[in-house]
């Protein structure tokens, strides 16, 4: 069931294409903070204060003053770094588990936060004052008014809800694997923990390699333009003659697939801690945390495909690159391999089909 065009639920809906009930479940995860057993309360409460201290002055206020949402691209990964520090400093579980999980979050968020600080800094002479918002957020505004049928005059309110929602996800959802595992006192690591950490490492490396290939492609295109060797239409990464960047021939967004895979690994690594000593006797809390773990890959998939990832990027690529629709038709959108019963969005002009 999709939310009808012009319906009030668009004001509170989560991500890009979730079922309304899924959005309500995300909000209900806030109960996990209130139900937290003593060993986890300090972790959750400290993290909530840190995320608020990060998002309110450095995201919500600039968004209100400038009308640009790009600031959240710095704050969200910085919030993951904060989760790593809170988990490491306050976790009381088995120390190798605490070190490993905290390191995963630190590397995961730190790479993106540093990259955003440098990229946005260089593009604005380190003033962080943007002439226009990022394409993904310009698309979000387009979707709000043209696709969802909501009043454009209320876009300022939706901007606050969408950016604050990323801080909320750091507070009640994405922190759950970290806080469960660093509170688990059981000695030795479970097979699922090793498996999850291995999947995280593979996904993180895959994402990093895809980003490096993208940077190399962009530097190559800039060099060709300077030398006057590329006067034609903009090239498409992953499509001939730029198909030597092989990860981008497997799917149109290998960096997003790597990001999703990494989060899938963190979710799997957290499963054994649902039965750890701190959660004994806390049946409802355990259920909430299980829902959070199950929702992580679902929400991240929706985010990376429909909300701030593939869809918004391709909305502009279709218009900017005449051959991009060939790329759409030939290459899967998200998964680098065929997954049955999954829409791989190989339709020309996806997501909005505005190809004129």
TrEMBL record:
InterPro entries with a match to the protein in the record: UstE-like (IPR010721)
Write out the entry's keywords from A to Z. Membrane, Transmembrane, Transmembrane helix
Membrane-spanning ranges: 20-36, 48-68, 74-92
Q: Which Pfam families match?
A: DUF1295
Q: What is this protein called?
A: Steroid 5-alpha reductase C-terminal domain-containing protein
Q: Which organism is it from?
A: Durusdinium trenchii
Classification from the root reads: Eukaryota, Sar, Alveolata, Dinophyceae, Suessiales
